Amino acid sequence: MDKVLLIIAPQVFRDEELFETREELEKAGFETVIASTAKGTCTGKLGGQVEAVISIEEVRPSDYQALVFVGGMGSQVYFEHPAAHDLAWEMYADGKIVSAICAAPVILAKAGLLKDRKATVYPDHEYTLKQYGALYTGEAVTVDGNIITGNGAESSRAFGQAIAQCLRQGVMS
Prior knowledge:
Layout: E1 3-7, E2 11-13, H1 15-27, E3 31-36, E4 40-44, E5 49-52, E6 54-55, E7 66-69, H2 82-93, E8 97-101, H3 105-110, E9 118-119, H4 126-131, E10 135-136, E11 141-144, E12 147-150, H5 156-169
Parallel strand pairs: 1-3, 1-7, 2-4, 3-6, 7-8, 8-12, 9-10
Antiparallel strand pairs: 4-5, 11-12
Helix pairs in contact: 1-5
């Protein structure tokens, strides 16, 4: 079974963006694994709790077919995080799905992955995406090759469905 890695902040991740995205992926038959800055209990903005079973530094990209950065205010912990940027680049270079929702596309932008690529983000971060060369769409979900971005909690289900569809189709960059 293909595995999808969901990376969340230890605190203040956006609950819907984790739980609804994960539900859509699992409903489509994919196994999901939760990672964060450290193993242990992580708490969302709305109080949801989940266990991170692996730290981002322990991730082996070869174990996963897709990477999802979950948004929310807490995702800022990854904006300048070298391990997050390296992981995104490695999975992208291997032709795997690299995705982010809400504020988290800023992680991909700051890693340099969105230059000249279509992407969306929570509207408060539109300027940052453009600053790093992204072609901002303003859509709920944008797919550009093997990069998938979503603009917020309301698009969580569609975001999860888009990732699942691309995985089934074997989308490559």
